Amino acid sequence: MVSVAERAGVSKSLVSLVMRDSPRVSDASREAVLKAAQELGYRPNLIARGLAEKRTRTLGVLIFDLHNPFFAEVIDGLQEQAHEDGYRLLIGTGRGRAEEEEEVLESFLQQRVDGVVLLSPIVERSVLLGAAQEVSTVIMARHGKLVAHADSVVTDDQAGTRLAVEHLIGLGHEAIAHIDGGEGASALERRLGYEAAMADAGLTELIRVEPGSFTDEGGHAAMQVLLAGEEPPTAVLAGNDLAAVGALTALEEHGLRVGEDLSLIGYDNSYLARIPHISLTSVAQPRSEMGRLAFDAFKRRSANPNRRATRIVVEPKLVVRGSTGPRPSGAGR
Amino acid sequence: MVSVAERAGVSKSLVSLVMRDSPRVSDASREAVLKAAQELGYRPNLIARGLAEKRTRTLGVLIFDLHNPFFAEVIDGLQEQAHEDGYRLLIGTGRGRAEEEEEVLESFLQQRVDGVVLLSPIVERSVLLGAAQEVSTVIMARHGKLVAHADSVVTDDQAGTRLAVEHLIGLGHEAIAHIDGGEGASALERRLGYEAAMADAGLTELIRVEPGSFTDEGGHAAMQVLLAGEEPPTAVLAGNDLAAVGALTALEEHGLRVGEDLSLIGYDNSYLARIPHISLTSVAQPRSEMGRLAFDAFKRRSANPNRRATRIVVEPKLVVRGSTGPRPSGAGR
DNA sequence: GGCTTAGGCTGGACCGTTCCAACTGGGAGG
DNA sequence: CCTCCCAGTTGGAACGGTCCAGCCTAAGCC
């Protein structure tokens, strides 16, 4: 910067002003500085700037699992909004381990990020509380109690499964089973939505929750059990798309046609559901919108760090595809 | 840091030494400093450290497409190795646009990363050359001429399609078609491998390359054309898994059983291929190993920035699943 | 003509570290 | 007893920017 200043015949303060697009610089000096910078191949040092400004215009994003396409889309939304506002994203992952997640978070703080966005974190609540005290914090896709001074963004999973059940009822189905997602807050939410919707439709007696998991093996095994029973359901609501695909395999093994002999619904509207060969009716969460909302929440909180913790709930949508159809005549009840 | 020093009754230089685990500190002072730091909730400022040390122990990783699970696994390997060595990863994406990729790269340089890893970048060659001059650069999954002062890590795609063709020939197939991946260096490599393997087996006359793309629509359309022809192939090698899944849909529409009436092979051994419902024979690239190799290359180059550009080629493997089987008797030739 | 105002610019303190040359005190060696 | 050495420690100069108070000059106003 000093070399640029010398070459342009001005002070380094002025170079600094030009680099930051200050309006109170004459056109002549601006041009001279830019020319000198160009000639010297000068590139501003964001490290030094960060030190002097005491802020980095950087957001730390902690992702539970890089492989899950869900997160990729959330980051898309986040990145888009952040980029527009001149923020950079520092992405890290604890690769599914709480301990590593904590390390990554600490490293974000040491790097003095202006805020952190935690995507489905599994660290203990106390860690979240600690983070929220240090820096603007947004927690995504984690249900449970609010964390003081942190905002959270979640989807209404109960509403999601309710949509699915109502769609099936509209098609004439009554014996609708649910393949549970196992432990974890979102599996619980999804199950509650299913049960409530069934009860509201007067189908309490037909509620059937089969233990499973969020994996294809889990969905496969659960569907096996359902089909082996005396009165198999005419429709099944899987915990997520992956489990639904596992269930699909089981149906094939039994020679049943999905969408005709039995209707199947997934959850997440992932990439998988969209494949024509699979064509799965599924509940969609507005992922990139969630990313945008998270960034907005961050901005609001950095403007006013002491505001109350908020929870932003977004509504899921049902995407109907080929895996659901009318109740087969004469089947079950 | 000064406060910690005062509280511990030592100089800030000594605090600095303790924080960096220097061996030339007495146990007594070390303990006193750590105690004071603990009590004050002191957290080292990596920004200031980066400024003073003139290096950041940070690697900029530019990803072509966050959604592609291929990249997630490469990053896994990279992250593992980097973490072990005390490096952090700064991840960014140009979201498929060359112009944005350039911006992200420039931002990495302004942040003074110690190196950059470019995953399948689409920026112009001149940009790569420029980056390589500024900082240790590793280019991944991009074929083509070597870039001066940069190392590259690629898979041998020609060998990959060759493996696939040889597997099919071993099963008795002769009329083996290839669905091309469209433009781009890797589509070219894959096609060349196919053609060479066919020629080597004396099947030059049966070489058939159907234009397509790396998407499911592309695979679907190409398979339609192949099946509509007079002498449809008994085996098809798709450009990647996604195209193979599209082809699968076309087969279904024609009432053909995959693995029996026609054999199908994908490329990438993605998540999709592993789904039981799909069960696609596919060519696997050692993704996380590629990530580790990229980090090694970075380390070597930072130790010696002027070493010659190298190209590290890793060998693909064939993963056989249910979509390939013996040539149906009496079919085609 | 003198006073005020404002735009444009500057010098130097500061941000929180690392680095380096130099200092100290006690033990070993002659 | 003096010198040398070395482990342990220290003060102050970087690192490359931003920030702020203040300076200069020319224009505007009465």
Question: What this model shows, in words?
Answer:
The structure is a homodimer of 333-residue chains. By secondary structure, chain A is an alpha/beta fold. The first copy, chain A, contains 13 helices and twelve strands. Chain A has helices spanning 2-8, 12-19, 27-40, 46-53, 69-84, 98-110, 125-134, 157-170, 185-200, 216-228, 241-253, 271-274, 287-303, and strands at residues 58-63, 88-93, 115-119, 136-140, 150-155, 176-179, 208-210, 235-237, 263-268, 281-284, 311-314, 317-319. A six-stranded parallel beta sheet of chain A has the order 2-1-3-4-5-11, sandwiched between helices. A six-stranded mixed beta sheet of chain A has the order 7-6-8-9-10-12, with helices on both faces. In chain A, strand 8 (235-237), helix 11 and strand 9 form a beta-alpha-beta unit. The radius of gyration of chain A is 26 Å and the shape is elongated. The model of chain A has no long low-confidence stretch (mean pLDDT 93). At the A-B interface, helix 4, helix 5, strand 2, helix 6 and helix 11 of A face helix 4, helix 5, strand 2, helix 6 and helix 11 of B.
The CA-CA distance between the termini of chain A, in Å, is 79 Å
Instruction: Tell me the Rg of chain A in angstroms.
Output: 26 Å
What is the typical, i.e. mean, pLDDT of chain A?
Answer: 93
Task: Show the largest interface.
Answer: A-B, 43 and 43 residues
Largest beta sheet of chain A, briefly? Answer: 6 strands, parallel
Q: Give the total of beta strands of chain A.
A: 12
Helix content of chain A: 40-55%
Q: What order do the strands of the largest sheet of chain A run in, or round the barrel if closed?
A: 2-1-3-4-5-11
| Count of helical stretches of chain A | 13
Structural class of chain A comes to alpha/beta
Spans where pLDDT lies below 50 across 5 or more residues of chain A: none
Q: Give me the oligomer status.
A: homodimer
- What form of chain A results from the Cα inertia axes? elongated
Portion in beta strands of chain A: 15-25%
Helix/strand order of chain A, N-terminal first: HHHHEHEHEHEEHEHEHEHEHEHEE
